[in-house]
Each structure stands twice: as C-alpha cells, then as structure tokens.
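User: Hi! I'm working on a homework problem where we have to compare a predicted structure to a textbook description. Could you give me the structure for the chain below?
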Amino acid sequence: MILEIVTISVKPGLEAEFEAGVAKAVPAFQTSKGCHGLELQRSHETPNRYFLFVRWESVEAHTVDFRGSPQFQEWRSCVGAFFESPPQVEHVATALHGFGGTIQS
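Assistant: Happy to help. Predicted structure tokens:
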C-alpha cells in the first residue's frame, strides 16, 4: 500500500469552497482503480494549507491509472481553481507503525 501525501495551498478566503470541491470529487477517487480511500486535513497554523492523504494500491495506480483517467479531470475541475500554487506530491510507504497492527482510516 502506498500513501500519497499532497500539500495544497488554497487561495485565502476560498477554503470553504475548496473543501466543498474535495467533497464533490470523492466519487472520482472512489471509482478509481487501486484507490483505497482519502482524507483531507487542514493546517491549524496555516489555515489555507491542506494535506490530502490518498491510499493507493501502488504508485502506478495513482500516477498512471488515475492521472490518465477521466476521474483525474473531474478532480481537477472540482478543485483546481482554488490552488494558490501547484500542489506538492509525495508517495510514501509505512516504515513503522506504533499502537496497533494496522493503519486506521
């Protein structure tokens, strides 16, 4: 399992609209091959900064299958207008997990 971590800076004042756009885009992820769920977190210190966590079966499920799909276009149409700058994306794999045997969503 791969975790995609996306750092997104939203244009100030458009946070509520961005969050609504992400909610609208959830079905695009839900129907994507290899996607196992997502979570959006908002920074307390920098309220227009968000962290999107998406669980994928593999890096290719994200970079090939999703990005080449109509679902990716739907995602971008729901949220792209709110980006202050291009999102920063990293893919990580669990190296250690404390307190329990599995990562909870």
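For your comparison, note the following. The domain at 2-92 is CATH 3.30.70.100 (Alpha-Beta Plaits). The longest strand covers residues 2-9. Good luck with the assignment!
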